[in-house]
């Protein structure tokens, strides 16, 4: 493509309202323009990259046995009412009325639509499993759109859905999709982790998020420094084993600790390690109060508390509730001498504390010499804390480290959440109607575009990985008014195009400084500069990534490009 | 692709609510399903064809020098208010509010969006011309969605826009697009005409519609039987030349013609030819009354009347107005002895009528022996009638015939309609701000899919043209439980896939009759049946279009397929 005919409005300045690197670069390199908050036009360069990402997704989905279709964005409200999400989705779901005053949702996701479609056509186990996907514009009215296309209100998503007659078949389908996702993100040149995630309110079981490692990510990932293990930090189990030392037990002693509320304060006040302190937090687990204990240097993970009790809701007790139940202000709560109806559970690390310190359920007082087996009634020791950096990885391999991640994909075992609500059943081998077992699998295509840029840039602009770059070669004649430079550049352009390279020719009448700056911003892997030595048949080749540059005789150019780019 | 893994829900019965062939076949062959009125899911087979059409469109657009981008479907109301279309578009424009109660339109078309985008980035004539296009889902809340995806409320469109600094540049761009459109529809295997169309209220100049010839079309095309000429019937000029015979003029005579109002009645009553009768119709042209004359066998074309007077509105005068102005009921109106303030204009054919018949402006009375030069005051003779079948083609080549057409594309010289309303200006070579001159160019991608099927089917199903078919080869093992048949079919499937053919393998455990019926419905160009002679290495090849079938030895199959399909 000739640059004069393409719409690439580059900017010299960093736009004031763009906080993160990818957003800044997409604006500056002429990839996107905002139309309104969270709504963007993808200009030709961005569009070319989107198509490449889509093609990779398509190849991997087809390879995984899924078929592509296209469902409508306009979805009648009745479908969402059947699943119940019309009422639960909130203002993120964009809604409108047609000319007949009928309610519609703009597709934020398509579980209802696909369930309805498959329910109407598939009646027998013989037609299962079935996997379908689409690549489509989705609409979600985000409360706080930000970071450019990383969190927009209109975005491109690949959503896939699978239907199964058995859980084993779902497991197989899930594994195929999982592998396809790994391939997609690897081929996009991303440094990512498949992270065990919370199945949340969806009622599913297995679920993984695909996270691109980035300091601007909104999620924290706990990963092993020596294996593939990675999990959302909320989900990582702690497998540490604790051993009790054989120090002699002291007597329990109540002490005055004026204004020493936090673990920090009390450990410092008493000059003991945090590991010796017992953190005691009162939770409301569904309708029941539970006192949860953890070691002073650990944080309680309420998802683990919730799972321990198979509860629906776990909340911290309020100060008023604490006062009412324990007759104590928060900060001095402890497990000793509390009402029988309050269950006490503790993280495993607490079980080995000898002569510990805990609140005395009395303002400005603590106990020391606490030995829980003797002094309190702990109903259960379990894994109840957040994993920490330095903990042993849950797979036993290496130590845990933390990283931030941008979620670009999600695979999810839905189970029968939708098929039961919407009565999507099949007849099994015995002729009995059963709800279909479903999986759903999403990739944020436009978000992936931004994530790639977030990971591939330097101070001068974007640095495209080869197989996702909008073009691979940028030809720059230094002076287009010089006939031999212009002609050589044009000839090279046609020759390399014919060879199958994707070439952008900067045929604009601009100063060469402007062209180089734009070229660095746009970030194509290889730049060929046609300058004064054009007459001698010599051009300069520069690699965007390494910055390495060298002169090449035209006779050797093809061979050189083959070495660099293949083909 | 293996058929068992693809979602192709075929139907035996013709769905009751599908009126036209393409709609019936798309439902029966498992290409689409309706979600709600005018809103469809494109199932995998349809999706594959859509992608092929899109690829053809893309190649031809790129060839024409346009760059692809993607603009949002969500468009803030302010843009549409700037152009004025927020108020004029009516209920076809779908509207919604976001969570902050701001108004949005769902993109029905993108003139406003692209004008705003280019206005903000292009400031100089040096950056023009510029041509941009997108392939995108559009939304129009049609009053009467019908014929399946031929007239839907959510549909796929390619819309292109070009920006120019001069009218000559617009002409060039328009010509390139015109040629690209001819290529697109030819490559889609369509029998179509590029038809001169009415530029209507858009204020543009040149405009062509691309019409697929079909009896279900809503527009009438006047085309030459011996040239490429074609026009919307409303737009075709009449170039007939009329010669006056040298019959002697009779005297004007008022005669009584009780209840003879129509041309049919009066010509029969007087036993004269319709060609001798003068049809006289009173029009209201803007605020002025004009009497328009045509030969009895011709129809007056009000667009031509409108153009003759450069008027904004042309309407038939009401009976009340006719009474008021001519003191006469319609049916007896004529050009003789009418008030001076009423201008009389006539179609050219009227100029040669000798001894004609016309209304006498008196109920139940006509004149005969009418010779207008002598008896009336005609201010102008001009081309004011509709062209008819049998007329000479306006390009002088051949005779006109009529056909019905489905509009699949439209190229349009917009001029400065949007750039002036939205202040999209550039600085010309003299540094003066000028409005950009625009063109717009649309293709109904999903409608094209239906139009192809409308033209390519027989009583058994769809008959795909090769380069647009979802797959080119359908392999059918007669009995998948027979090991040698199944294995041969599978081997063939892999071999032909590897060779680059697109192959659908019917691996379902169905009766062969069901498979053949489905295969005919789906309509792939070549069917390979693997039956009893599998062991002998013999298969049957059947061509969908001709119905021709023959046995082929496996050793000769590749050569045979190359003959049929190329590759």
TrEMBL record, chains A, B:
Q: Which UniProt keywords apply?
A: Aminoacyl-tRNA synthetase, ATP-binding, Cytoplasm, Ligase, Nucleotide-binding, Protein biosynthesis
Q: Mind telling me which GO cellular component terms the entry cites? A: cytosol
Any idea which GO molecular function terms this record carries?
aminoacyl-tRNA deacylase activity; ATP binding; catalytic activity, acting on a protein; proline-tRNA ligase activity; transferase activity
Q: What class of enzyme is it?
A: ligase
For this protein, the record's InterPro entries field holds: aa-tRNA-synt_IIb (IPR002314), aa-tRNA-synth_II (IPR006195), aa-tRNA-synth_II/BPL/LPL (IPR045864), Anticodon-bd (IPR004154), Anticodon-bd_dom_sf (IPR036621), Pro-tRNA-ligase_IIa (IPR002316), Pro-tRNA-synth_IIa_bac-type (IPR004500), Pro-tRNA-Synthase_IIa_type1 (IPR023717)
Q: Which domain of life is it from?
A: Bacteria
Q: Does the record carry Protein biosynthesis as a key word?
A: yes
Matching PROSITE patterns: AA_TRNA_LIGASE_II (PS50862)
Q: Where in the cell is it found?
A: Cytoplasm
Q: How does it assemble?
A: Homodimer.
Biological role: Catalyzes the attachment of proline to tRNA(Pro) in a two-step reaction: proline is first activated by ATP to form Pro-AMP and then transferred to the acceptor end of tRNA(Pro). As ProRS can inadvertently accommodate and process non-cognate amino acids such as alanine and cysteine, to avoid such errors it has two additional distinct editing activities against alanine. One activity is designated as 'pretransfer' editing and involves the tRNA(Pro)-independent hydrolysis of activated Ala-AMP.
Regarding protein family, the annotation reads: Belongs to the class-II aminoacyl-tRNA synthetase family. ProS type 1 subfamily.
Q: Which HAMAP family match?
A: Pro_tRNA_synth_type1
Q: Which NCBIfam families match?
A: PRK09194.1, proS_fam_II
Q: What is this protein called?
A: Proline--tRNA ligase
Q: List the source organism.
A: Metabacillus litoralis
Name of the gene this protein is made from: proS
